[in-house]
Specification:
The chain has 2 domains: 256 residues, 3-Layer(aba) Sandwich (Rossmann fold); 57 residues, no CATH class. A hairpin with a 5-residue loop joins strand 11 and strand 12. It contains 12 helices and 12 strands. It is α/β, with parallel strands linked by helices and 360 residues long. A 6-stranded mixed β-sheet has the order 6-7-8-3-9-10, with helices on both faces.
Length: 360
């Protein structure tokens, strides 16, 4: 994808201006910035949903405006913040609707279409409620269903506006794993995110959209090292210090995030370097490097969860290992990774429920 001199807005009023960007196959670009800055407007313009005021979006060498709608829907799928309200449709029906571009002239679906829908349901872990009426689903379940529908289109480009909306923390991280997997398969992902820690974790590059409509693109390491977030959101010094702690920006945090995949320049000097896909990734939501006891466990950093520093299983006989208590009363597990491995979060919750209500 190539975006040239794009200005986006409504009724000739420019909201986002002079966007120039080349996006490589399989790249993950996250849009960040203050509310009302124009993230949704830019995404709608990139996808062709909103007519640009000026400039051009190219998919390959084709101007997106000249691609027939049915062909475009085979190349690009979209997840908007607008809530669809289908009548008398199950979750599976909604997912299957993503195959409409591939259906015959009568809108009939083939067996391969249904297999693609099943695969998307499994990927987003909604198979257990796929036969429920879409209108009866929770907001989080609806969001996962709509993402599954977009994936079901088998797109080359996936455009998502706040895809983590309505998702709890577990499903947010599962979605990141799905996005990473799609990226590794060559799907280009462009999305807006409000959760800075998630954007820093998953993105190859960040598109910073400011209140004045100006846009810049940098890799996550550069964004942290140069303190761009402070200016982007207009933070006070005190506020920014709090955000830095939340994001885990310490002596070595920026080094971890700024590992480069190497300089890959193409055309204009607008393609920044990203990070090695195999380098350790973690969310500062789980990891607190400012803690005086860090590191307190042998578990790999990208799997660690400081959420369970005060172990919720401390009084359970089958907690999984031996431990001692620190001077501050924190349970310091010695040979058990069960409560500290963030992937075990659902299992920990299950044990807590058993403790509270019994196994039955």
């Amino acid at each position: 994808m190539k975006i040239e001199s794009l200005c986006a807005g409504y009724h000739k009023k420019i909201i986002v201006k002079d966007v120039n960007l080349e996006v490589k196959k399989g790249e993950i670009i996250s849009l960040i910035g203050p509310n009302g800055g124009g993230k949704s407007t830019l995404l709608k313009s990139i996808s062709g949903e909103l007519k640009t005021i000026s400039g051009t979006v190219y998919l390959g060498k084709e101007d997106i405006r000249k691609i027939p709608l049915k062909e475009l829907s085979k190349k690009m799928s979209i997840v908007n913040t607008d809530r669809v309200k289908p009548e008398h449709m199950t979750a599976f029906d909604v997912v299957l609707a993503g195959r409409l571009p591939y259906s015959d002239g009568f809108g009939m679906f083939s067996e391969s279409d249904r297999e693609a829908a099943k695969k998307a349901c499994e990927l987003m872990k909604i198979a257990k409620f796929e036969e429920k009426s879409f209108s009866d689903l929770s907001d989080g379940q609806k969001q996962r269903t709509l993402i599954a529908r977009a994936i079901c289109q088998d797109p080359e480009f996936l455009i998502m506006d706040e895809p983590t909306s309505y998702l709890d923390i577990k499903h947010r991280f599962e979605l990141l794993d799905v996005i990473k997997g799609l990226s590794e398969q060559g799907v280009t992902v462009i999305m807006s995110l409000h959760e800075l820690e998630l954007a820093l974790q998953i993105s190859h590059r960040l598109l910073l959209i400011r209140d004045d409509g100006s846009v810049s693109c940098s890799d996550p390491g550069e964004v942290l090292q140069k303190g761009m977030i402070k200016d982007l959101y207009g933070m006070s010094d005190e506020m920014y210090e709090r955000v830095k702690k939340q994001l885990g920006v310490g002596a070595d945090a920026t080094d971890n995030r700024s590992e480069s995949r190497g300089a890959e320049k193409s055309g204009k000097e607008i393609v920044s370097t990203g990070r090695d896909a195999d380098s350790p990734r973690h969310s500062s939501y789980f990891l607190n490097k400012e803690c005086e006891y860090y590191p307190c466990h042998d578990l790999a950093e990208e799997k660690f969860s400081c959420m369970f520093c005060y172990c919720p299983l401390y009084d359970m006989e089958d907690c999984g290992g031996t431990y001692t208590y620190t001077e501050k009363g924190a349970k310091n597990c010695k040979d058990c990774t069960f409560p500290h491995d963030r992937d075990n979060y659902p299992a920990v919750i299950k044990k807590l429920k058993e403790k509270m209500y019994g196994k039955n």
